[in-house]
Specification:
This protein is α+β, with helices and mostly antiparallel strands and 66 residues long. It is 47% helix and 24% strand. It is built from 2 helices and 2 strands, in the order ββαα. Strands 1-2 form a two-stranded antiparallel ribbon. A hairpin with a 2-residue loop joins β1 and β2. The two termini are 21 Å apart.
């Protein structure tokens, strides 16, 4: 997701596992970013709730590899 220099940017705030992250992206990519963050949050919650993986960094790596 890389915006052209003149493209208007949207500020986007997402919450993943109770942590807030701020992003800037092209306005027309905002919905896709929010959808991706929602999907990632759901996958990371599944991994965390399974109790088999401990630690945010490990959960993030497992979600990325899955």
């Amino acid at each position: 997701m890389s915006a052209t220099p003149d493209a208007p940017l949207a500020r986007v705030s997402v919450r993943i596992l109770e942590k807030e992250y701020q992003f800037a992206c092209a306005v027309d990519e905002r919905a896709a970013l929010l959808d991706s963050a929602e999907y990632l949050n759901a996958e990371m919650r599944k991994i965390r709730d399974s109790g088999k993986v401990v630690g945010l960094d490990r959960i993030a790596v497992m979600a990325a590899l899955n």
